[in-house]
Amino acid sequence: MQSFAEADLVPPPGTYVPGGAYVNVIKPACDAIVALALLILLLPVLALLAVAIRLDSRGPALFTQDRVGRQGALFTIYKFRTMRTDLSGPVLTQAHDPRITRVGRLLRRTSLDELPQLLNILWGDMSFIGPRPEVPSIVAAEYTPEQKGVLAVRPGLSGWAQIHGRDDLEIPVKLAYDLEYVQKVSLFFDLRILKLTPGLLLSGRGIK
Fold first, then answer.
1. Do the domain assignments include residue 1?
2. Prediction pTM value
3. Which of 82, 83, 140, 146 could make an S-S bridge to 8, C-beta 3.0–4.6 Å?
């Protein structure tokens, strides 16, 4: 993993950290149970997608990358590969990015490329609901100390910022929604986001 100074990736002292039985016990336990059940249920689908990716373009079925998790801890995120391996480009995906493969475009449009993150949820690196995890270089270079408050909770598969526009949002706007989530995290808020997520996926809003 790429090395960064600890202070570049962790929330500063005094940052609000949600607590209580829901955040520390109930939510992680439910995340792990549901993630395991979905991995078993979706195993045939995951296998078919992996084969389709391998047949469509050269390279592995899975894409891995360092991301910043709770309290600045680095972890390896898993996604289905949606880009060609023989082209380089910016860290963030651009609109009409030529690196995206044919199968990759479909996976991104449906968010099926995110399914391998069920492993991250099972292992405790992520949650179903929370701020989307960012790459270390962006956290270190672009997050203000206040914005690093989003790292007080586990990153999520979907989140409050995702509901409001995903990749259409500029980083400061996205982080403002994520900070709002950190302040309000609760069972009912998570259920609200979970309820709104299917509509977001069907709309294709904010996907590049």
1. no
2. 0.90
3. 140
